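Lab notebook page, bench 4
Experiment: in silico fold of construct C2
Operator: M.H.
Input chain length: 296 residues
Purpose: comparison with the prior construct
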Amino acid sequence: AALREAVAADVVEELDDQPGRFQFTHALIPQTIAQELSTTDRVRKHAEIARKMEAMYGDDSDEHASELAEHYAEAEILLGSEDLVRYSRIAGEAALAAYDFHSAHLHFTRALSTMAPDQDPAESAPLLFGLAQAQLATLERRNMPEAVTTLGQAFELFLEVGDTDAAVRVAATEIPSVYGNEAGADLLARALDIEPIDPSIKARILSRQGVVLHLGSGDTEQALRTQNEALTIAREIGDERIEFGILVNTGFIAGRHGRSSVFRTAIDRALEFSDRVDIPRASARTHFYASLIKAT
């Protein structure tokens, strides 16, 4: 029956001089069949490896998430996307923690690309947040609005599922000021309207808002008042890391608009933190500003 169907479909034809023997009607047909068979075999092999790895690693499977995600990606057509998404998220978060932003970008992008449009937003939101963090570290300056857009999508989904704590953390994500005057301004304002809000996160958001005000509207006085409000909160809760960042932002704003006494006071205080608080970017900015003070 299968042979008759193949003849009817003009896939094979009977040899005129050898009745009962058949040949493909085109030389590419057997190549295509061979490729399809090899693809099927490869998918099955990856599926088998993924399952065996999970069984072997057991409770430690998450520590091998990157490797498992690769096999589940190859076997997606056979095994579906659930495990692929789960291990890609775990691998992406591990890559972020290790500052391997390119790998994180790959993992989060792959996970999001396999999810259905009607996927549970509670699953999509963390992936978008992870992707945004990877984008902020890897995209070129001209493409940075893409990262801000991704942050906004994560923020909206966290609000949709009622996870306001996560939404606020998204808004507090550091966006270097060189990436645009209005970067994330809407997120900052909306996050500050959320109650209750952790004071440490509120201080970070206020400090970022001060920078945005300064770069956007040019309202230096309001920007410095916002920094002072953030600084007061940081000192009340005794968080030196946050205070360090706020002082650097204060110096940035004051220095750009000739507020020399505020600039010097902020950077002198920031220098005290730079030797004991491990924030490389803040330390680098502090020492750069300090060099400007010495040069004047």
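Observations: Residues 227 and 250 are 6 Å apart (CA to CA). Strands lie at 12-14, 22-24.
Next step: discuss at group meeting.
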